[in-house]
Amino acid sequence: MAEPRRPTLLWLQSGGCGGCSMSMLCAEGPDFLTALEAAGIDLLWHPSLSEASGTQLISLLDDIAAGRTVLDILCLEGSVMTGPAGTGRFHMLGGTEKPMMHWLTELAARAAHVVAVGSCAAYGGITAAGGNEAGATGLAHDGEKPGGLLGETFRARSGLPVINIAGCPTHPNWIIETLMQLSLGSFTADDMDALGRPRSYADHLVHHGCPRNEFYEFKASAEQPSDLGCMMENLGCKGTQAHGDCNTRLWNGEGSCLRGGYACINCTAPRFEEPGHPFTATPKFAGIPIGIPTDMPKAWFVAIASLAKAATPHRLRHNAVADHIVVPPSTPKGPKK
Questions:
Q1: What are phi and psi of 310, to 5 degrees?
Q2: CATH class of domain segment(s) 8-202
Q3: Pairing mode, if any, of strands 145-146 and 141-142?
Q4: What is the CATH number of domain 205-324?
Q5: Nearest residue to 235 (alpha-carbon basis) of 288, 282, 289, 284
Q6: Residues 19 and 118 sit within 8 Å (Cβ to Cβ)
Q7: Which of helix, strand or coil describes residue 145?
Q8: What is the radius of gyration, based on Cα positions, of the chain?
Q9: CB-based contacts of 222-226 (< 8 A; 24+ apart in sequence)
Q10: For the chain, what are the domain ranges?
Q11: Is the pTM of this model over 0.90?
């Protein structure tokens, strides 16, 4: 009896920095190639991992477009470059005289699953910022609006829309987990949120597991980037609104933006790249941060924040505006009961 055919994966890059591949190559336990082997996925081509290039790659793409080679998973990293004036000639695939956007349209029509790796491929991302003269867009979203290159009604051969593994860069385990689910045939439309992100990470908030949560609870706020306190009130942190499990599924086993002292900029969301204010500033109205938790009524937040600030322990009040712990937790005195 012949062995079942292994799912195939093609990874292409367009308008981006390659940061999602760099992130993915830092995957541990297992690494990316080991994970693909464990999932039974055959990697047809990746720009950083494959030796084939030039005519070899073009021949592979021709075979896929013509249906001679089966494509199960098409991954795009980086935004689709549609400029200038919708021609796509800002990104031509060398040796083909065809823009990458045309190749993506042909290949997506053949793929069982289409995956946007990173916020650029999902929504346009950093490359769509400013005046967007390059015409950068996502595969099926232009910012928060459905559309992009493939259009709102696009469905891959499996019947699923584009899967948006958003992040800048995206977490390596978000990629591996999604690819494994696709290989097993267990990923369905119910596993995607309203923006097409896998719910395995998008059902969480960056706030969950934040190392500064005790400061947040008592509204003991940092005043400058080196301070230990909560960065929501003054330094632009959007962890209470951002979808991602960054602080519970740590990067490289031990890191996250907040653990490194950086405020969350909500990089898994459309248009995160242009918030309308400096990333390190918190917009306020009548002294109240505009970016309060999305699922909490503003009046409740104001009331709770006022009570919390009144009850802030001496230790947190002082440590919040210091770059190291100046007041350690107290040690209980007296005999243990």
A1: -70, -25
A2: alpha beta
A3: antiparallel
A4: 4.10.480.10
A5: 282
A6: yes
A7: strand
A8: 23
A9: 222/320, 222/321, 223/321, 225/261, 225/262, 225/263, 225/280, 226/261, 226/323
A10: 8-202, 205-324
A11: yes
